[in-house]
Design brief:
Blueprint (H helix, E strand, L loop, with lengths): L2 E6 L6 H17 L6 E8 L1 H12 L7 E5 L21 E9 H11 L3 H16 L7 H18 L6
Parallel strand pairs: 1-2, 2-4
Antiparallel strand pairs: 3-4
Helix pairs in contact: 1-4, 3-4, 4-5
């Protein structure tokens, strides 16, 4: 089972919402058939904090809803040791997701659905990015958004919730 470390810098995310995020990401990890020893982190922040992160790492000086930092890219420039060649059974670290609690509430209201649905959507969206999915072109967007909808529907978190 996937290990998800969650950090709430805002102290505004209810335990039920943390549980929902954990359940959706765990469900999605099974749906994508990820290795059992997978791990990742999710941090909940304010708009001001995600804007700082966005500015520092993406050179975009604005708040956004979710940012993903995948650790499974193909480059080994920073860490040239091939971990797969070692006999130690390391967990498969997917990376980190940062979610703006402010944007979650704002977008839930704008799109006319619940905070829970928006939070689940953003957690899943970030999770799919950690697993190599993207929406930089129409074909990739269709694949990623289709998979997002399929997972949310299978989990039971519909847009009209």
């Amino acid at each position: 089972m996937i290990v998800i470390d969650m950090f709430d810098e805002t102290e505004l995310v209810a335990p039920a919402h943390l549980k929902l995020v954990e359940e959706i990401v765990t469900f999605a990890s099974t749906f994508l058939d990820l290795p059992e020893k997978s791990e990742m982190s999710i941090t909940f922040v304010s708009d001001a904090r995600i804007q700082e992160i966005n500015r520092e790492f993406r050179h975009k000086d604005q708040a956004t809803d979710v940012i993903s930092f995948a650790l499974n890219d193909e480059t080994n420039d920073d860490f040239p040791i091939n971990l797969k060649s070692l006999s130690v059974d390391f967990p498969y670290n997917l990376g980190d997701i940062i979610i703006s609690v402010d944007k979650t509430a704002e977008q839930a209201e704008r799109y006319g659905h619940s905070f829970e649905r928006e939070l689940g959507f953003l957690a899943l969206h970030g999770f799919l990015h950690l697993n190599g999915y993207d929406h930089m072109n129409a074909e990739d967007e269709k694949e990623m958004f289709g998979l997002q909808k399929e997972i949310l529907d299978a989990y039971g978190l519909k847009r009209e919730s």
